[in-house]
Amino acid sequence: MATLEQQASKLLDFNQKLDITLLDTIVGCLYSTVGEQQRVAQDVLTALKEHPDAWTRVDTILEFSQNQETNCLTEIAGVTVSNYEEQFVALLVQTMEQLEIMLPLSTNIREAYSAGRDQEQVFIQNLALFLCTYLKEHGQLIERRGLTNTLMNALRYLVLISEVEDVEIFKICLEFWNALAVDLYKIAPCSHSSTLLLGKTMGRKALYADVLSSVRYIMISRMAKPEEVLVVENENGEVVREFMKDTDSINLYKNMRETLVYLTHLDYQDTERIMTEKLQNQVNGTEWSWKNLNTLCWAIGSISGAMMEEDEKRFLVVVIKELLGLCEQKKGKDNKAIIASNIMYVVGQYPRFLRAHWKFLKTVVNKLFEFMHETHDGVQDMACDTFIKIALKCRRHFVTTQVGEACPFIEEILSTISSIICDLQTLQVHTFYEAVGYMINAQVDQVAQEQLIEKYMALPNQVWDDIISQASHNVDILKDPEAVKQLVSILKTNVRACRALGHPYVVQLGRIYLDMLNVYKVMSENISQAISLNGIAVTKQPLIKNMRIIKKETLKLIAGWVSRSTDHNMVLENFIPPLLDAVLLDYQRTVVPDAREPEVLSCMGAIVYKLGPNITSEIPKIFDAVFECTLDMINKDFEEYPEHRTEFFLLLQAVNTHCFKAFLSIPPAQFKLVLDSIIWAFKHTMRNVADTGLQILYRLLQNVEQHPQAAQSFYQTYLCDILDHVFSVVTDTSHGAGLTMHATILAYIFSLVEAGRVTVPLGPTPDNTLYIQDYVANLLKSAYPHLTDNQIKITVQGLFSLNQDIPAFKDHLRDFLVQIREFTGEDDSDLYLEERLFALRQAQEEKRRVQLSVPGILNPHELPEEMQD
């Protein structure tokens, strides 16, 4: 019996009729076997694909092959070889002739697919792949040859296939429509451009006009759900709130959105016509359904920014009026929930329109307030999310007295705040408060702003004052679960208000600050007391959990405000002393490490970053309280207390960067602990901690050099030790991603020594350069005895001669590591990780640049602030 190789070779004999059964068998071997059989199948199919006469097999493959994996046509179509243009033209012409016999253009492919057997459905998918691949690679060749009918028929087939209810097939088609729309946009960026300027490009656009109109209709009818929409119809036909984000659906939406934006640029009037007609059919009931309304509104929201402002205004006035009318017209909670979610999505996507049309903005916000009382799942969440989006993008309009109004709208909101939020859940109230905070932040008159803040915080302050008043008579009220729960909510409201207001929040912070720190102290005592009586397990109880949340939110609030503050002296004189008294001693004397809040470390870090050298005098006090006790929590392994670990090293980095002089005034034993902790950091398995550790070490070495007296003592005591530890991570395969920083630090140390800036002897040899060269050589020799003396000599010489050129130094270091890994047989791909990440970042930046250059491609909420108005 003939071997598989002998049988397969018949496929390459173009004098014989193509054996389709054998072809299917070979393709099956490629996908379902391993070893020799798979290799033979791969070789034969590659040879078939690249054969200059492969195109002559098209009709037979199309007509008879039923194998799911038979993508030979697609493979052939994907080849780009300019000297085979005639064959490629013939490939499409023959394919289309054969296709029109098998599957006439009059066929309803969507219905045929739905009713078809598996092999027929596979055929449609393979046809989609072939047409998309061919047209992407050779479409312009067919255009140039003037084969308009053939090209248009191929595109019409793709339009019909795009209607098939199969998401994978749709994604194949979508990728092609996106590429075509981008290609046509590049030659004629805007449908508003002058015809005279466009010249010949109008010919290409006109050629595709009918097909693109059909594609617009499909995109609008099938638009995927955006991330912002929370109200959905489930598989049982019920209207519910979506809790799990569907990543596939979000990615599909982004691709469809981008495609529709480009299609709108190519002919905005056609997009508007289709959308307006479909909206009328929703209102008159001929196309009414939740699905149809959803896809239409998601499409309308997706093209924000793609029209000229005047066109957008005319279009949106109609859309918003019709949607508000539909909301009044339709009865039933589910109908209203769906319509409400669509109104909110559409208005949230058009901040430019709302900023320019106050009456619509006011109507929309009042409608959102109405939806905040609608208890249907998801509606209140969407109302609050949309409100905060609009508040961010239109903030100035709420604090200005608009034409026809007696006062700024913010005054109306603040005077009715209790009735607006009365039906909202706690988290929704927090979102609402942040939104209003952004509006107040836009008020530039300080006196007016302070008055607004007072009204704004009146409700939470009322409850706060009541609890504080009770606690002043009986401190045990701060053990009452309901009171503690209320304090948690009030502090979270304050955190959100501070995030939005920034520095001006100081008027509210000053009002509650000392009481808040007293509450912090009481909560600390309550927690310590509970732990001493009942053990650490008590921290899992709801009441103790909430007490800890009060402490965490207090620290978050202070850190958040300090990082946004603009008056360093005010912070330093009025806020820091009572904070350190309340927080530091409590952290240090908390016996159970699990009860220490990592937010203490992040708060101290934020203060150091913001106040810089001004806080240097307080660093010894901060270190005394948090340094050793935290280090003792994290130096046993690399896993426990990950939050404390991260924040501890960020605090250390802040002190090293902004208050280095404080390190020079601490006792030598404590400084050694600091250095040990930095070494511990860059040896970490947590990538963020290791990176922070390397950055701290590099900055520390630079800082030390600026203080000559301290520097020489530092070099004599620690430099060789640092070299040991850095080389230990350089050669550790789990730390390959830090290669650039490793190279930077080593080059810096070697350049210090070589330039004679280390004047104290580092070893028994008076010449420090020779000593360090020998030291490093011995280090490497003892770690890698398989290396020859010559290999080590060349490596060490390179480390010194290249220490002024970091990229060359890094390449030299990497060559050494590759040598080591070749010997041990370890993978060296991680040594190139940074280059791959850099290439990825560059590609992302280029993509972002292109997106910024095309109006509407970026979601309006992704646009930089300066591009808003």
TrEMBL record:
InterPro entries: ARM-like (IPR011989), ARM-type_fold (IPR016024), CRM1_repeat (IPR041123), Exp1_repeat_2 (IPR041235), XPO1/5 (IPR045065), XPO1_C_dom (IPR014877), XPO1_repeat_3 (IPR040485). It comes from the Eukaryota. It is found in: Nucleus. Residues 508-825 form the Exportin-1 C-terminal domain. Its main location: nucleus. Keywords: mRNA transport, Nucleus, Protein transport, Transport. GO terms for biological process: mRNA transport; protein export from nucleus; ribosomal large subunit export from nucleus; ribosomal small subunit export from nucleus. GO terms for molecular function: nuclear export signal receptor activity. GO terms for cellular component: cytoplasm; nucleus. Belongs to the exportin family. PANTHER family: EXPORTIN 1/5 (PTHR11223), EXPORTIN-1 (PTHR11223:SF2). This is Exportin-1. It comes from Eumeta variegata. The lineage of its organism: Eukaryota, Metazoa, Ecdysozoa, Arthropoda, Hexapoda.
